[in-house]
Amino acid sequence: MSIKSDSRHLYLQVIDKIKREIENGTYKENEKLPSEFELSKILGVSRATLREALRILEEDNIVTRRHGVGTFVNQKPIFSSGIEELTSVTHMIEKSGKKAGVQFISTEYIRATKEDRERFKSITLDKIAKIERVRTADNEPVVFCIDKIPKGLISLESTHQEESIFKLIESETNKRIAYAVTHIEPISYNPRIYDILKCNPEHSLLLLKQMHFTEDDEAFLYSANYFRSDRFSFHVLRKRL
């Protein structure tokens, strides 16, 4: 059915039409869309217009285009929120209505590097606890987490008793994580992490590097969390000054 029924640019109409078809189930998650030739005929637009619409839909992580294969509908993120609110991965997953789980990869004490000492603002820092975990949502791996905490603040054994690092820190130290300084980076294919998260090599990951501080501005926890971009979506509210 042609969509040339309003005055907006055609590619905007195409975007809205494809989104509606995804929402109503005509095009399902992980399924391939009709070919560009077929889809342009269905919508009554040129292939150039269709390609512009698909380009924007891919930028918005709604579809993925695979060269020589076709265009596929992405899974909807299980969690989408503003990143201004600091919350645990456990809370993110539970807020989406799914059961949060954890799979431990490794827990060990390692020698602090120069970068670690700079992060924690401690020139005498010798050892840190390094915890590698996979966070799951309804048993699906969705986040790979690397957490670092100075040795002596918590015991490694206790990390297996509490899924939320935030809650663990509060129960072990009586201190509360109040805020974090966050850096966001897109990550391309990494064999180890992609295998752990069981995600498609063509999908990107979102890496959130966060230095967490207590209410007394004490550097307490460093985290590198690799989020599957097909399962998590973050946005930032920016205000004009």
Number of strands: 10
Whole-angstrom Rg: 22 Å
Total of domains: 2
CATH topology of the largest domain: Chorismate lyase
Strand content: 25-35%
Mean pLDDT: 88
Classified in CATH, the superfamily of the largest domain is: Chorismate lyase-like
- What low-confidence regions span 5 or more consecutive residues with pLDDT below 50? none
What does the model show?
- It is a single chain.
- With 241 residues, this protein is an alpha+beta fold.
- Helix content is 27%, strand content 34%.
- It contains 7 helices and 10 strands.
- The strands form 3 sheets. The protein has a 6-stranded antiparallel β-sheet. A two-stranded antiparallel ribbon has the order 1-2. Strands 3-10 form a two-stranded parallel sheet.
- It is elongated.
Task: Kindly list the characteristics that best describe this protein.
single chain; 241 residues; alpha+beta; Arc Repressor Mutant, subunit A; Chorismate lyase; 2 domains; two-stranded antiparallel sheet; 27% helix; 34% strand; elongated
Q: Can you give me a brief rundown of this structure?
A:
With about 240 residues, the chain is of the alpha+beta class. It has helices at about 10-25, 35-45, 45-60, 90-95, 115-120, 165-175, 190-195; strands spanning about 65, 70-75, 80, 100-110, 125-135, 140-150, 175-185, 205-215, 220-230, 230-235.
